[in-house]
Amino acid sequence: MPNVTFDSKDIERLFPGKEFDKLIDSIGMEVEERKGGSVTISVTPNRPDMLSFTGLMRALGLHAGKAKPKTYAVAGRPALSIAVTPAVMRVRPFIAALVARNISLKGNALRYVIDFTEKLSDNYGRKRNKLAMGMHDLSAINGAVVYDAKHDERFVPLNGARPMSFEEILKGHAKGEEYGYTISRNGNANYPFLRDSEKVLSLIPIINSDATKTTEHTTAMLVDVTGTDRNAVEDAARMTVCMLIDMGAEVHPVNIEYPDRNEITPSMRVKRVTVALEDFENIIGVRSTAKKMADFAAREGYIARTAGKGIAVEVPPYRTDIFNEQDVIEDLAIAHGYASIAPMPVVGHSVGKESESNMRRNGIAMLMVGLGYSEAMNYYLSNERLQFEMMHRKRGEGVIKVAKSKTEAITMLRQQVLPGLLQNLSDSAHERMPQRLFEIGSVFRLENGKPVEETHVAFVSEHSKANFAEAKSVVDALARYTGMRIGYKAHKDGAFIDGRCASFVDGLVGEITPEVLESFKIEEPVVGGEIVLEP
Amino acid sequence: MEERDLQLLRYVSTHGGVTLRDAGRALGLSSRDAQSTLDRLEHDKLVTVERRRVRTVRIMAEANRYIDKFPEEELRNSLLVKGRRPDDIRNSIALGWAVKNGWAIVSEGLAKITQAGRESVGRPYKVRELLIKLKDAQSDEQDRLVRSEADAAETLVKRKLIAVEEGSIVEGIAVTREGEAALGSKTAKDGHEIGQLSKELLLSKGWKGMRFKSYNVNAPSETVYPARLHPMHQLLDKVRRIWLDMGFTEVEGPIIESAFWNFDALFSPQDHPTREMQDTFYLAEPKSLDIGNRKLVARVKAMHENGWKGAWDEYMARQAVLRTHATSVSARQIYRYAKYDGNDPLKLVSIGRVFRNESIDYKHLAELHHSDGIIIGKGLSLANLIHTLKEFYARLGFEVRMKPSYFPFVEPGMEVTYYNEKVGDWIELCGSGVIRKEITRALGSRNTVLAWGAGLDRLAFNELDIGSLTELYRNDMDWLRTRKELGAR
Questions:
Q1: Fewer CB within 10 A of the terminal residue: chain A, N end or C end?
Q2: Are the Cβ atoms of B273 and A126 closer than 8 angstroms?
Q3: Which fold has domain A80-265?
């Protein structure tokens, strides 16, 4: 979940004292930490609109009943046009833009707005691939704006000292290294960028030009949203419009001239949803009225009116997560307050039933404990070294391998339980003998291209007099208990001493070889076995 | 001290210079019991024992058949009647010894008796006489016999009828000062105190009228370590028992799962960050899995394309992953019970491992235990879900609070948290909600489904005194042997 950090002072001005924490909690977000005059809040991924200070405060104000929901609209005719070239259509085909005037970016406002565009581009925009945003001081833009793609151009990147070529930025600039992948993944040598009649405005989605840098003195700006996903681009533009309007700006549309059509952006179309009282009552489990529902809806930003036995709402344009009435119902419940939903027992007959396989596993566990074996529980994730090399076994067939792991010791799912138990003995070398361990758990292998999960029981016994007969008695006891028929046959296995290892229908038993004990640094004799419980 | 030990000690003390054999007989002990009793007294330094090294004789089983007559004596007697052809004599060893003893000769193909043979009849046969004596003798007498009748003894050894072994016999027993002191303290209390109660004492009613020795109840006793179940096993059983008590049926599902069941069937968008490799274990072998039913796949595809307004790639859905939550099991169960139309709710729960591609530290493991549950039925509500989860956590000892939260597959979504005093903050226990109807419909069900996924490993912090989750799976022998019961501090 993305985190956003704001100055405590800015919050205090709107929600003094403990009120803020309570509100944050009741709308389902979380205060992550408070440190040195700032507060970090974690925002669930369905609410990117709350990644901006303005958006979060708006939601809290509405929820607290301090503000009323409102409609958001862009003003007048397009403030400017952006031409889209066929070259960029092949690389990053969607763009929306807006012009904001009479904006104040004083104090922390500029930082909050930049943070919002970056967080939105990273999270909702999936690391700037789906969408990315740029902000330009409108007064620094001259002439017609073009959204283009070319192999190379030069400009001074934001806060940079000298002009750099696109290639240089991709290879030598931190942002280029981080986001250059969005271009290279298209296999296209043309980089999308924005220019006016004289200069590059930004290399998209990597970095803006220093020439159009927004500062706290900026009062008018051009915001562009570009991307590979039309819906995401439109959503981000709408969210931005709402934020800027709530910041006091006047927002004007921008005309986009695609090679084959014109579009006026951002599209501020409003989604309408109706919710029946019955559905709200049934899903949440509360008694309510259409009037109450409308009040709840208003507290979550909807323009709502009662309609028959229920309500009709207009979804605020900054919301991207409202698919249908279920999502509205959740918001009504949030306004109602989860804490005040009275718990109701589930009505109807039901009888508990443990799974057969768990009953069986537990029965065998109790038998093993009765035989003096303590239970171990090891990871299912393992590696070839433990599973095969240290066991002096040939690398097994049908290994189930993980593709990529953050931990070096994880490369595969275990095929046998025994190696883990030997590792446990090795780790407990200093403890009193005898040491007896067993484990019941899943093992995995590939058979005819299909994964197979099996339950095994394995056991080990380590002490100075451990011998084959001791281990075999355990298998005998298991066989008596399960009714498993076993005919022992002399068997050869890398982990067991030749002549002291037997196989039977579903397993192996024997004395572990000194070589294997050495590889585990075990200093006393060990016997053990492994048996398939459930194929 | 055992009663028997006390009796022997008293006997030796009152009968100076007594032999072990006599003392044993007087007390009605077998020679083996007498010996072990004496060994104990000596070990406890209550007596000193003087021993002499002797050779003792073990009589072999075969010898018992010869006590009355050796085979060569039998052959000799038969030859008194008439000579026999050696081939007709079955026991060639008997003939050998008869010839060696000078009782018989073989000439002209016939074994015949000699004069010495005739004269030996009715006289004692030295070898047999020795055997008889040895059989009845005590060790010290046996020692003397094998020395004085060395030839005959050698013959018996050679014929494997006896074995001569090195041993020792008790020459003298003397009660030590400690022994007298022990005796003094016993006799002072009217001479009859029982130490270890024995089967003999019980059967003979020998305990009647005797006192039981008082033990020092503060004396340290041996530390023993019982074999035990793994604490996580006990914790999982506890969780399972609560669900069973609440009327849930336990279900299971595969750990190796297709992205389809783990993500797609649960409306997780294909470009969702949790689906990326750094969070999910994708498999290199097998890379992909069958996802079955074409109609189901088509419905899930439509759900994604209508909902997320983007293309849905079946290839991505086929990718094999290690399940990241057991909600995949719940999804399969919703599909399995798609046609369920009963009035009573179906309550299903799974308890099993889930996998996250995490860097492992004290509170993050790559493998976790989850308990995912669903209630399938008509007219189920968030209020029902709250009741169910409050009840579950109350039984685990948690006072919980519900707050809104977000998971792509539920709407409304709810998080269950509790206040952790140690941390000074609310800690998440469980994610839950009402499954989106797009999902239940795509899985073929017209019912309402309440669902949750509860992490169980962190409960271990509460139930077991551990500082790090990694301790749970280290299987340290000392910890397995000595840890306290669940919930104990």
A1: C
A2: yes
A3: Phenylalanyl-tRNA Synthetase; Chain B, domain 3 (3.50.40)
Q: Closest CB to A380: pick one of B289, B353, B415.
A: B353
B258 plus B404 within the same structural domain = yes
pLDDT in tens, B263-318: 999 999 888 877 876 689 999 989 999 987 899 999 999 999 999 888 899 999 99
Interface of B with A in 172-231 (CB under 8 A): 225, 227-230
Tell me: do B158 and B262 sit in the same domain: no
When pLDDT is cut at 50, 70 and 90, the band that residue A186 belongs to is low
pLDDT of residue B206: 80
Find all residues with CB under 8 Å of A85, minimum gap 6, and list them.
A146, A147, A148, A149, A259
Interatomic CA distance for residues A277 and A265, integer angstroms: 36
Pick from A336-350, B85-99, B149-163: least confident: B85-99
Measure B283 CA to nearest chain A CA, in Å: 4
Domain A3-63: state its class. Answer: alpha beta
Specify the CATH number for the domain of residue B261. 3.30.930.10
Nearest to B333 by CA among B344, B347, B322: B347
Is the confidence at residue B349, as pLDDT, over 70? yes
| A 134-193 near B (Cβ less than 8 A) | none
Please give the residue of chain B at the shortest CA–CA distance from A349: B344
The span from the CA of B56 to the CA of B165, in Å, is: 5
Which has the higher per-residue pLDDT, B29 or A195?
A195
ipTM above 0.95, yes or no: no
Per-residue DSSP letters for B223-255?
--------HHHHHHHHHHHHHHHTTPEE----S
CATH number, domain A356-534: 3.30.930.10
What pLDDT was estimated at residue A188?
A: 62
Chain B residues 450-469 with CB within 8 Å of chain A: none
* Mean pLDDT for the stretch of residues B88-93: 79
The hierarchical CATH code for the domain A271-316+324-338 is 3.30.56.10
Are A134 and A242 in contact by the 8 Å Cβ rule? The answer is no
Q: Among residues 257-296 of chain B, which lie with CB inside 8 Å of chain A?
A: 271, 273, 277-278, 281-286, 289
Q: Say if B18 is an interface residue toward chain A (CB within 8 Å).
A: no
B294: in domain: yes
Chain A residues closer than 8 Å to B474 by CB: 427
Q: Are residues B338 and B424 in the same domain?
A: yes
| pTM, rounded to two decimals | 0.79
A410 part of contact set with chain B, CB < 8 Å: yes
Most confident of A2-16, B12-26, B209-223, B453-467: A2-16
Q: Contacts of residue A450 in chain B, CB cutoff 8 Å?
A: 286, 289
In a shared domain, residues B344 and B418: yes
Residue B417 distance to chain A (closest CA, Å): 11
Give dist(CA B349, CA B389) in Å, integer.
12
CATH code assigned at B41: 1.10.10.10
3-state secondary structure of B12: helix
- Please tell me whether residues B321 and B353 are part of one structural domain: yes
CA dihedral B239, B241, B242, B245 (to 10 degrees): 160
Q: Do B401 and B451 lie in a common domain?
A: yes
Q: How confident is the model at residue B47 (pLDDT cuts 50, 70, 90)?
A: confident
Query: Which residue does chain A place closest to B480, by CA atoms?
Result: A374
Residues of chain A with CATH 3.50.40.10: 80-265
B134 with B256, same domain?
no
B355/A352 Cβ within 8 A: no
Alpha-carbon A45 to chain mean position: 8
What is the extent of the structural domain holding B371?
Answer: 232-482
Place of tokens 């649960």: B266
First to last CA, chain A: 40
Tell me which of B89, B108, B124 is where a domain ends: B124
Smallest Cβ–Cβ distance between A431 and the set B228, B237, B477 belongs to B477
The reply to whether B448 touches chain A by the CB within 8 Å rule is: yes
The mean pLDDT of A237-252, rounded to a whole number, is 96
Check if A404 contacts B (Cβ < 8 Å). yes
Kindly tell me if the per-residue pLDDT of B430 is higher than 70.
yes
